[in-house]
Design goal:
This protein is α+β, with helices and mostly antiparallel strands. The protein folds into four domains: 22-213, SGNH hydrolase (Rossmann fold, 3-Layer(aba) Sandwich), CATH 3.40.50.1110; 228-350, Jelly Rolls, CATH 2.60.120.260; 353-451, Immunoglobulins (Immunoglobulin-like), CATH 2.60.40; 456-550, Sandwich (Immunoglobulin-like). 17% of the residues lie in helices and 38% in strands. It is built from eight helices and 30 strands. The chain has helices at residues 3-18, 33-36, 44-52, 80-88, 104-110, 114-125, 151-168, 195-210, and strands at residues 25-31, 56-62, 92-96, 133-138, 172-175, 215-218, 228-230, 250-253, 257-275, 285-291, 298-303, 313-332, 339-342, 344-349, 358-366, 370-378, 386-392, 398-399, 409-416, 420-429, 432-435, 439-443, 448-449, 461-462, 474-479, 484-491, 497-506, 512-516, 529-537, 540-548. The strands form seven sheets. Strands 6, 17, 18, 20, 21, 22 and 23 form a seven-stranded mixed sheet that branches. Helix 3 crosses helix 8 and helix 6 crosses helix 7 (151-168). The longest helix has 18 residues, at 151-168. It is globular and about 80 Å long. The model is unreliable at 1-9, 14-19 and 446-457 (pLDDT under 50).
């Protein structure tokens, strides 16, 4: 082999070594049940791993009920997971122990050994050739004496010793007490965090390690309630294309058929979503164009050769483009002579981040007491986003699923006749949680409706607002079964009135609807946060919490 060939091979070897990916940074957690968590997928180390991404490897070595004290009732030292933590060879190690040490039969007998045992653990992990950066965790509050765990011991005796070890061994410090001191709501059994509490812990850790907070971004549909002009429809259904209601639709026969949406002013978009839950097998082909003046059009999306598929949600992304007018043209379908239903056409505002999954619903069947339906969702960007859903069945929104990796999927759900259920989606990717709009469903005698109350009221009722959380506006429905003066106002959490939405005489059994645009009495926008809707008539009052997210 010639010297030139040998030299080339040597250069290639050097270059290949230079471009090899760096190994992930290993982050390990030694702890008790707060660390082992409610489930392997929802514990705060697992949620942190999701937030950190592929550049990190997270190891969870928490064991329920374990103590730092070697003479405690269940010392972590005796566990296989403790040896696994040593073998993990972490680059960064968090030690989160002390809660179970506060129990009387542990602390009152062996508490004077806690400092030495803590130092011994630090030294044990520091023996290897590459000792980790060690963080000592100040435990969160214990909001009651449960399982003999005593917050007075944690805060007055254990935490000061941890602080001393931090100084003596030059450790890093992570405080889980201060952020949660007023968040008893996140600790349902007074000791262990809920999944939402674990997510908050993961976000604190993300900020600690990366130096930035998880961004919270809301998707904005620029086309919502905007005027639509079509060249073909059945029964004057054009407005249904942008009304936000999954069971209403723009209906037409024949292609090409065109709809033009006027956004009202120029804005930047990078994604479009089309809902066709009633025509999933139509195999639509289409184009999407944009214009600033409705005269000069630029082709943004060309799906005129799209193959036949049974998708209920169609999504397209583009480089960010400023538009005021958007033209959707259905150029063909596999059913050219059938009625086509398009329930929604969304134009999503460009934020510099990904978008939440598209979400729609379709009625499956009904009985005399229940409506059964499917919630369908599909990715807009499809870049590996992780999705979780929130549901509100009358008691406020709560987590419906943890972070999952769905692409095109659906959930089957049910609503009792006369009740309502609402959903929204959070999509995580690259340091940002993106929130979808709210899908609100109501069960009545003949169908599932969206954002409307189909029955005549017979009670004094302040219904839940939709969407919630909201930006920039939300719709509030209310009614009374008595005549007389009725008022509806918005208050902050200090009890200060922000604005009055309604104040007038009402007739009985007439449902009222009003919008709040997030502005105060002086028409100035208010800050993001929790507000109180309060309805009053005579001596009767009702209140609801609402959330504005800017």
């Amino acid at each position: 082999m010639s010297k030139i060939k040998l030299a080339l091979i040597a250069i290639l070897l050097i270059l290949s070594i230079g471009v090899q990916a760096q190994p992930p940074i290993k982050v390990g957690f030694v702890g008790n049940s707060i660390t082992s968590g409610t489930s392997p997928a929802d514990c705060y180390p697992a949620q942190l791993a999701l937030f950190l991404g592929e550049d990190y490897e997270v190891g969870n070595f928490g064991v329920s009920g374990r103590t730092m004290l070697k003479n405690g009732d269940f010392p972590i030292w005796d566990e296989q997971l403790f040896q696994d933590a040593l073998d993990f060879d972490a680059d960064i190690l968090f030690i989160f122990l002390g809660t179970n040490d506060s129990k009387p039969y542990n602390w009152d007998v062996y508490g004077d050994e806690y400092y030495d045992d803590y130092v011994s653990m630090v030294d044990t992990f520091s023996l290897g050739p590459n000792p980790p950066e060690i963080w000592a965790v100040i435990p969160p509050p214990a909001f009651a004496v449960v399982w003999n765990i005593r917050d007075s011991v944690i805060v007055n005796e254990i935490s000061p010793i941890i602080e001393q070890v931090i100084v003596d061994k030059a450790l890093k410090r992570l405080d889980f007490r201060t952020p949660f001191i007023d968040r008893e709501d996140l600790f349902p059994d007074k000791i262990h965090p809920s999944v939402e509490g674990e997510e908050m812990m993961a976000k604190i850790l993300y900020d600690t390690l990366v130096g930035g907070q998880i961004q919270e971004i809301r998707d904005i549909n620029l086309a919502k309630d905007k005027p639509v002009c079509v060249d073909n429809d059945i029964g004057d259904t054009a407005a249904n294309l942008t009304d936000g209601k999954p069971l209403t639709a723009w209906q037409f026969i024949g292609q090409p058929s065109t709809a033009v949406v006027d956004l009202g002013e120029a804005d930047s978009t990078d994604a479009f979503v089309i809902h066709v839950p009633q025509s999933p097998d139509a195999g639509l082909q289409y184009t999407i164009e944009g214009s600033l003046d409705s005269t000069d059009w630029a082709l943004l999306v060309d799906q005129s050769a799209r193959p036949d598929s049974m998708q209920m949600i169609l999504a397209d992304t583009i480089p960010a483009q400023d538009v005021r007018y958007v033209r959707l043209t259905i150029t063909g379908s596999t059913q050219p002579d059938s009625i086509i239903h398009i329930s929604e056409f969304k134009v999503l505002r460009y934020t510099g981040h990904h978008h939440a999954h598209g979400m729609t619903a379709i009625l499956d069947r009904q009985t005399s007491k229940w409506s059964y339906f499917y919630i369908h969702f599909a990715p807009v960007n499809d870049r590996g986003e992780r999705l979780k859903m929130y549901r509100n069945s009358g008691e406020g929104f709560g987590r419906f699923t943890g972070y999952k990796e769905p692409h095109y999927a659906s959930y089957r759900a049910s609503i009792r006749m006369g009740d309502s259920t609402s959903y929204y989606i959070v999509d995580y990717l690259d340091g940002a949680n993106v929130l979808s709009d709210t899908l609100a469903l109501y069960a009545i005698d003949t169908a599932v409706e969206f954002e409307s109350f189909p029955t005549v009221p017979d009670m004094f009722e302040l219904s839940y607002n939709f969407p919630n959380p909201f930006n920039p506006e939300t719709v509030v429905y209310f009614s009374s079964n008595e005549s007389g003066h009725l008022s509806l106002a918005v208050y902050n959490l200090l009890g200060e009135r922000i604005t009055t939405l309604f104040s007038a005489e009402v007739s009985p059994n007439q449902r009222q609807m009003i919008k709040w645009t997030g502005r105060d009495e002086s028409n100035m926008p208010v800050a993001s946060g929790i507000y109180i809707l309060k309805m009053e008539q005579g001596t009767r009052t009702q209140s609801r919490k609402i959330q504005l997210v800017r």
